[in-house]
C-alpha cells in the first residue's frame, strides 16, 4: 500500500508551474469561488495532477459551492435580496433570520469574517457597512440590502495589502489570527473616525471643536475595545494602528531569526 | 432563532399600524439587542418590521432646546456638534456604552428600549418573572452581584443597562411617541421606564405598537459643568456596576441647581433626588458632595452579593460631582 504521508516529489518544472498557479489564482479574485472555478478549468488541461491535488485540499478546507447550501428554500419563507460585497453584487435567496455574517460565510464563501461569540461581544465578525464598522453577527442580511459591504477579503488592492494589514504583519499584531480580520476591519474604520474628529469616552474634552484627532495609545485602546484578542496581542495591535494613524514608522519589536544572526548571537 | 417574516416599513404610521396588529410583531431598528435576544430564544416575534430607514434621524435645535431623532444612530448623536457643545453629558454617556461597532448600529430609540442583561433573564431554563411572568426571580436569592440596590421588588431585582438613558434622565428629557391612529403623546423621561413592582415584564410605560419618534431635551446651564462617570469590571466595553450622570449650575460659589442620576443600581435610570435636594444652595466642595451622596445612599437596600455598590455609589457620586465642577474633562 502506498504511504500517504510521503510527500510527492515535484520536478523543477512542476514546482515553477505550481508557484505560477498559486500566484495567478490568488490574484484572480477575492472570492474563493473563482479560485475553485479556475482550478477546475485548469484541471482539464496540462497541469491536471497538480490542480486535482489542490482541489482536493480545497474541498477539505471549504465545502463545495452550491446555490443554497444548508437549507431548502422551498421549506421556509425565503426572500430574494441583493448584497453588494467588496464591489460585487450577488443575488441571494435567504430566510429573514440569516445574519449578514452567515450570509457572508455560508453563502458567499467569504470566510474571512469570523464567528466568535455570535452575540456581539467579541468583534471577530466586524465588517464595514457603508464604511462604518458593524457587527455582522447582529445584523440581518436583509437589513443591509443596498449598502456597500466590505470584508477583510476586500481590503487589499490587487496584490497590495491595505496599510493596516501590512502594519499588522510588521508588528506581529496577532497570534492565532482568529480575531485578526475583525481587528483589521475595525482599525481601518478607526482611521476615518479619527480623521472626522469623532470623540470617545476618553476624549479629554468632548466640547472642544476638532478637525482630525490625533490618537494617543489610550484613545486607540478605548476605540478598539470592541475587538477582543484572547491571545493578548494588544500591545502589537496598538503599535500597528499607531504607525498607520500617525504615518510615522514605529519600531518593529520582533524579527525572524536567520542562521547568520543566530550564530552572531552565540 | 425561530423563523419570522421580515418587512420594511414605508413610513411611521404604516409601521405603527403593522406592529399594533399583534403582540407577536416587533419593530426592528439597529437590532443589537433584539437579534441577540432572538438568538437566545428570549424574544420570539413572528414578524419584524424594519424601521431603520424611516426618516426619523434629524438632530435639530428647537426654541427651548433640542430634538433628537429616534432613529439617529448613537454614534451620530454623540458626535453631533449641537450635542457635543450643549449636552456634553449626553455625548459622554453614549460614548461610555458598548463599542464603536454597536454604537454605529444602535439607534437612540432602541437604546432606550434595551432590555436588562440579568443572566437569569437571558437564560431561558432559569426562572424569571420578566421573561416568563409567574416563574419567580432567579436572582433574588441567586447570584446578584450586578443587580439592583434601589427600587427592586421580590418579583425582580434586575437593573436597566443603558448609559445614554442615565444622561437623558439627568437632563429631563421628554420622549415623544406615536400610537395607532396617529395619536401622539409626550412622556417625561423619569416616567418612561418603570420600577418592577408586580409587573417586571413591563420595562417601560410604552404601549405595544407605540413608536418613539423623537427625544427632546430642554435648554440647561449644565454644559460647562457636567460629567458621566462609569465604573465597571474592566476599563471599557462592559456594563456599569455603578454609573453617575452629574450636572451643576452655579450661582457664584453656590449651587443653584444639581442633577444627579445613577445607572446600574435600579430597574430604571435612578434620579438621585435626595442628593440633588441636599446640594441646592450649598458650596461645591467635597464635604457637601459626600453628604449629598450619603443622603442618597441611605435609601439603598443591597442584596446578598452587591453591598459593595452602596460604597461604590457613594464614592462615584462624589467623584462625578468633582469632575463636573472641573468642567467635565476626563
Summarize the helices and strands and which ones pair or pack.
The complex is a heterodimer of chains A (266) and B (330).
Chain A: H1 12-28, H2 32-43, H3 48-61, E1 79-85, E2 88-94, H4 100-107, E3 126-129, E4 132-135, E5 148-150, H5 163-170, H6 180-195, H7 217-223, H8 234-246, H9 259-265
Parallel strand pairs in A: 1-5
Antiparallel strand pairs in A: 1-2, 3-4, 3-5
Chain B: E1 5-8, H1 12-20, E2 25-28, H2 34-40, E3 47-50, E4 59-62, E5 65-69, H3 74-79, H4 81-86, H5 88-96, H6 100-105, H7 108-112, H8 119-122, H9 164-170, E6 174-178, E7 184-188, E8 211-218, E9 226-232, E10 240-251, E11 254-263, E12 270-271, H10 273-279, H11 286-297, H12 308-325
Parallel strand pairs in B: 1-3, 2-3
Antiparallel strand pairs in B: 4-5, 5-8, 6-7, 6-8, 9-10, 10-11, 11-12
Characterise the protein shown here.
The complex is a heterodimer of chains A (about 270) and B (about 325). Chain A is α+β, with helices and mostly antiparallel strands. Chain A has 3 domains: about 10-60, no CATH class; about 80-155, Roll (Ubiquitin-like (UB roll)); about 165-245, [2Fe-2S]-binding domain (DNA polymerase, domain 1). Chain A has helices at about 10-30, 30-45, 50-60, 100-105, 165-170, 180-195, 215-225, 235-245, 260-265, and strands at about 80-85, 90-95, 125-130, 130-135, 150. A 5-stranded mixed sheet of chain A has the order 2-1-5-3-4, sandwiched between helices. In chain A, helix 2 (about 30-45) packs antiparallel against helix 3. Chain B contains 12 helices and 12 strands. Chain B has helices at about 10-20, 35-40, 75-80, 80-85, 90-95, 100-105, 110, 120, 165-170, 275-280, 285-295, 310-325, and strands at about 5-10, 25-30, 45-50, 60, 65-70, 175-180, 185-190, 210-220, 225-230, 240-250, 255-265, 270. In chain B, strand 4 (about 60) and strand 5 (about 65-70) form a beta hairpin. The longest helix of chain B is centred in the C-terminal third of the chain and has 18 residues, at about 310-325. Chain B is globular, with a radius of gyration of 19 Å. The interface between A and B is large, with 44 and 44 residues.
Amino acid at each position: 500500500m502506498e504511504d500517504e504521508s510521503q510527500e510527492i516529489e515535484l520536478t523543477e518544472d512542476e514546482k515553477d508551474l505550481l508557484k505560477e498557479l498559486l500566484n495567478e489564482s490568488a490574484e484572480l479574485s477575492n472570492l474563493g469561488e473563482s479560485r475553485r472555478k479556475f482550478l477546475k478549468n485548469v484541471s482539464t488541461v496540462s497541469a491536471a495532477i497538480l490542480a486535482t491535488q489542490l482541489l482536493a485540499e480545497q474541498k477539505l478546507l471549504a465545502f463545495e459551492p452550491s446555490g443554497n447550501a444548508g437549507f431548502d428554500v422551498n421549506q421556509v419563507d425565503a426572500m430574494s435580496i441583493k448584497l453588494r460585497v467588496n464591489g460585487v453584487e450577488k443575488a441571494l435567496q435567504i430566510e429573514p433570520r440569516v445574519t449578514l455574517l452567515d450570509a457572508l460565510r455560508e453563502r458567499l464563501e467569504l470566510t474571512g469574517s469570523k464567528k466568535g461569540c455570535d452575540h456581539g461581544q467579541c468583534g471577530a465578525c466586524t465588517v464595514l457597512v457603508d464604511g462604518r464598522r458593524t457587527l455582522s453577527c447582529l445584523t440581518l442580511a436583509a437589513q443591509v440590502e443596498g449598502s456597500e459591504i466590505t470584508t477583510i477579503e476586500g481590503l487589499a488592492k490587487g496584490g497590495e495589502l491595505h496599510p493596516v494589514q501590512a502594519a499588522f504583519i510588521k508588528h506581529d499584531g496577532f497570534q492565532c489570527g482568529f480575531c485578526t480580520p475583525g481587528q483589521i476591519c475595525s482599525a481601518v474604520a478607526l482611521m476615518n473616525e479619527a480623521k472626522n474628529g469623532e470623540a470617545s469616552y476618553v476624549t479629554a474634552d468632548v466640547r472642544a471643536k476638532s478637525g482630525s484627532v490625533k490618537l494617543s495609545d489610550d484613545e486607540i485602546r478605548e476605540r478598539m475595545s470592541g475587538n477582543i484578542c484572547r491571545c493578548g496581542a494588544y500591545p502589537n495591535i496598538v503599535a500597528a494602528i499607531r504607525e498607520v494613524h500617525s504615518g510615522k514608522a514605529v519600531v518593529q519589536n520582533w524579527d525572524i531569526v536567520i542562521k547568520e544572526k543566530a550564530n552572531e548571537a552565540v | 432563532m425561530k423563523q419570522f417574516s421580515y418587512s420594511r416599513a414605508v413610513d411611521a404610521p404604516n409601521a405603527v399600524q403593522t406592529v399594533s396588529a399583534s403582540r407577536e410583531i416587533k419593530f426592528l431598528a439597529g437590532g443589537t439587542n433584539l437579534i441577540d435576544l432572538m438568538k437566545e430564544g428570549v424574544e420570539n416575534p413572528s414578524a419584524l418590521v424594519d424601521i431603520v430607514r424611516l426618516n426619523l434621524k434629524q438632530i435639530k435645535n428647537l426654541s427651548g432646546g433640542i430634538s433628537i431623532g429616534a432613529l439617529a444612530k448613537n454614534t451620530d448623536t454623540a458626535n453631533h456638534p449641537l450635542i457635543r457643545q450643549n449636552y456634553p453629558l449626553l455625548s459622554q454617556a453614549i460614548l461610555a456604552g458598548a463599542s464603536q461597532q454597536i454604537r454605529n448600529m444602535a439607534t437612540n430609540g432602541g437604546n432606550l428600549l434595551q432590555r436588562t442583561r440579568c443572566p437569569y433573564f437571558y437564560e431561558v431554563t432559569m426562572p424569571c418573572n420578566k421573561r416568563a411572568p409567574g416563574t419567580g426571580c432567579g436572582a433574588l436569592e441567586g447570584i446578584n452581584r450586578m443587580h439592583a440596590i434601589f427600587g427592586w421588588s421580590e418579583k425582580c431585582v434586575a437593573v436597566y443597562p443603558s448609559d445614554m438613558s442615565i444622561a437623558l434622565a439627568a437632563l429631563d428629557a421628554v420622549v415623544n411617541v406615536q400610537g395607532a391612529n396617529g395619536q401622539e403623546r409626550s412622556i417625561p423621561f423619569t416616567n418612561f421606564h418603570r420600577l418592577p413592582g408586580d409587573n417586571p415584564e413591563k420595562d417601560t410605560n410604552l404601549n405595544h405598537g407605540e413608536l418613539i419618534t423623537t427625544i427632546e431635551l430642554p435648554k440647561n446651564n449644565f454644559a460647562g459643568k457636567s460629567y458621566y462617570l462609569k465604573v465597571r469590571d474592566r476599563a471599557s466595553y462592559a456594563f456599569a456596576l455603578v454609573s453617575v450622570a452629574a450636572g451643576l449650575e452655579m450661582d457664584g460659589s453656590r449651587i443653584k441647581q444639581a442633577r444627579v442620576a445613577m445607572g446600574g443600581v435600579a430597574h430604571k435610570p435612578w434620579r438621585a433626588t435626595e442628593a440633588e435636594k441636599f446640594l441646592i444652595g450649598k458650596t461645591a466642595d467635597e464635604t457637601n458632595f459626600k453628604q449629598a451622596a450619603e443622603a442618597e445612599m441611605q435609601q439603598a437596600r443591597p442584596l446578598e452579593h452587591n453591598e459593595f455598590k452602596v460604597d461604590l455609589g457613594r464614592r462615584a457620586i462624589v467623584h462625578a460631582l468633582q469632575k463636573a465642577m472641573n468642567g467635565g474633562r476626563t
